[in-house]
Amino acid sequence: MILVTGGAGFIGSNFVLDWLAQNNEPVINLDKLTYAGNLNNLLAVQNDPRHLFVKGDINDGALLAQLLAQHKPRAIVHFAAESHVDRSIHGPAEFISTNINGTFSLLEAVRAHWQALPEAERAAFRFLHVSTDEVYGTLGPDDAPFTETTPYAPNSPYSATKAASDHLVRSYHHTYGLPTLTTNCSNNYGSYHFPEKLIPLIIANARAGKSLPIYGDGQQVRDWLYVSDHCTAIRRVLESGRTGETYNIGGWNEKANLDVVHTLCDILDELQPKATGGSYREQISYVADRPGHDRRYAIDARKIERELGWKPAETFDTGIRKTVQWYLDNDAWVRDVQSGAYLTWLEKNYTAR
Ligand code: NAD
């Protein structure tokens, strides 16, 4: 049994689906179901006895203690976070509460549980903290990509709170000996991605005939990784990573935002041509840049490749095509998110166990 936090969000739900497809080991999925948590993502495992969904907050120490005592998971995979940079600019308080205080409360509950385990179980236990490359700050065009030893220099409230949580995790390993692992991954894309983020937003707006907003000059560079490759990497780190270590995860796919948008328009032009003719590119509109917008992120993923033999299975070209196709095939999911209908889904449909 493993315990996943934030398993109703974008990456967490992909991870839970992937985990249950690859293993027979059950998952407790603890998620607060904020606006970003969506049980529609988990329809495929709704009645799977190996999936136990618990609606709850990682700040709730009593709930955490009870879940750990009752289910005795051998590992924690910690995804739960406030994750949207723009929201962190307009309202950082939730980011402090979940990303910093929530990670602290989770670490405290896990430490107490772990310290009481018999020696052999203590040694085998793992706490895997899922983090971002944004903690490293921004790169110039000619700078080498981030490695695991790049100094932290977060620039947004989101990345600052993730950096703080990374440091807390690190300290619990060095101070208490908790067997931790931290992963710092680049931008993910793929199925179940909430349409406030660049790729699903562009696909949704293009199809709705709305404008495709580009921040500033659109030349901000990100490294992109298909979400199922991230899930595979996390499984690999969980099974074989060295405790106390951090692993950078990336796809070697540096792309300027404008190029990503052009690619999406071109794939849509091919798969779903506009009824009115012309290209989706005509809907592009430039908007004021995000304050403090980092110019470039790039990940050096050689450590995880060398030590754990992980490599992404998808290139950007194959992954982005699959992603567009997924959104074309899953209109109902997008509509539910846009209308807010998914927010009442738990009450209507989910059988609590
Ligand atoms: P998401 O916003 O889609 O999902 C976050 C999930 O956490 C949601 O289901 C939400 O309900 C839940 N949650 C929020 N606050 C909670 C709380 N207090 N208690 C319990 N659950 C809570 O995020 P995501 O994009 O899936 O990212 C998951 C993790 O991966 C985050 O830690 C993020 O920092 C990290 N990450 C994301 C990316 C990316 O490109 N999306 C890249 C690298 C790392």
UniProtKB/TrEMBL annotation:
Protein name: dTDP-glucose 4,6-dehydratase
Domain NAD(P)-binding: 3-323
Listed NCBIfam families: dTDP_gluc_dehyt
Cofactor (UniProt): NAD(+)
Catalyzed reactions per annotation: dTDP-alpha-D-glucose = dTDP-4-dehydro-6-deoxy-alpha-D-glucose + H2O
PROSITE patterns (UniProt xref): ADH_SHORT
Gene: rfbB
Enzyme class: lyase
Magnesium in keyword set: no
Species name: Janthinobacterium rivuli
Similarity annotation: Belongs to the NAD(P)-dependent epimerase/dehydratase family. dTDP-glucose dehydratase subfamily.
Keywords for the protein's UniProt record, in alphabetical order: Lyase, NAD
Alphabetized GO MF terms: dTDP-glucose 4,6-dehydratase activity
EC id: 4.2.1.46
